[in-house]
Design brief:
Elements (H helix, E strand, L loop, with lengths): L1 H8 L1 H4 L7 H7 L1 H4 L6 E5 L5 H9 L5 E6 L2 H17 L6 E6 L11 E6 L8 H14 E12 L2 H6 L4 H20 L3 E5 L6 E7 L4
Parallel strand pairs: 1-2, 1-4, 2-3, 4-5
Antiparallel strand pairs: 5-7, 6-7
C-alpha cells in the first residue's frame, strides 16, 4: 500500500502502481548472486524494496552495498523495514548505505561491480534517460554488469495513445536502448512472472 500511495502521488519517478515481483527481483539480481569474492553493489531506484530484500539476503560480510532513492517516503520505509533489521541481526554484516537524492546528484564512493536499476526510463524525456545512463555507466566498472528492466510492449501500448510528439519521444528512447544493447554486449530476458511481464536487460563491458 505504501508503494501504491507513492506511485499515485509521483508516477513520473515510480512508473508503476504495483511493486516488482520476486521473480523479476531474482532475475535482475542473478549476476551478482552467482559471483564469488567481495562485491560492490549499487541499486538505483529501489522504491519499496523488492530488489533490496533479495540483495540484502544475498550479502556476505565483505560486500559493500549502496542504494540511491529520490523519494523520501521510500527512503524512510527502506531504512526502517529492511536496512536497519539487516544491520542489527549480526556483527558479520556487509556495509550498507542508503542515499536520498537523484543519481545525478548523489556522491558515491568509487565504482561498482554490479549496478541494478529500477528507474522508469520510459517516463523520462530522452535527454534525462541519456544523462542517467551516462552516470550509471560511469559508476559501473569496466568488468562490471549493469542490469535494468522495462515492461514488455509498454512502448507499443503508449504509442497508440499519445500524439506525434509522444511517439517521437518513444522512438528516441527505443533507439537509445537498442544502441546500448549493441554497444555493451547486452542481453534481454523475459520475465513472465511479473505484473506486467518485463524484460531484464544486462549490459557488459563498460570499458569497450
Amino acid at each position: 500500500m505504501s508503494f501504491i500511495t507513492q506511485a499515485l502521488k509521483n508516477s513520473y519517478h515510480t512508473g508503476s502502481v504495483w511493486p516488482s515481483s520476486r521473480a523479476l527481483a531474482r532475475t535482475i539480481t542473478r549476476s551478482f548472486r552467482e559471483q564469488d569474492g567481495p562485491r560492490k553493489i549499487l541499486e538505483v531506484g529501489p522504491g519499496s524494496g523488492p530488489f533490496t530484500k533479495i540483495i540484502l539476503d544475498s550479502l556476505r560480510p565483505d560486500d559493500e552495498y549502496h542504494l540511491v532513492e529520490i523519494n523520501e517516503a521510500f527512503c524512510k520505509n527502506l531504512q526502517s523495514r529492511l536496512i536497519d533489521p539487516y544491520l542489527s541481526q549480526s556483527k558479520d554484516t556487509a556495509k550498507v548505505e542508503l542515499h536520498q537524492g537523484a543519481i545525478e546528484d548523489v556522491t558515491l564512493p568509487s565504482t561498482f561491480d554490479f549496478t541494478v536499476c529500477g528507474l522508469p526510463f520510459n517516463n523520462f524525456p530522452p535527454t534525462v534517460t541519456r544523462s542517467i545512463f551516462r552516470q550509471l555507466l560511469e559508476l559501473t566498472r569496466n568488468t562490471g554488469n549493469l542490469a535494468y528492466f522495462e515492461y514488455a510492449a509498454v512502448r507499443t501500448m503508449r504509442g497508440a495513445v499519445v500524439g506525434a510528439e509522444g511517439r517521437a519521444k518513444i522512438k528516441r528512447i527505443d533507439a537509445h536502448g537498442k544502441s546500448m544493447l549493441k554497444r555493451f554486449k547486452g542481453e534481454r530476458e523475459l520475465v513472465l512472472g511479473n505484473l506486467p511481464p518485463a524484460y531484464v536487460i544486462r549490459l557488459h563491458g563498460m570499458g569497450s
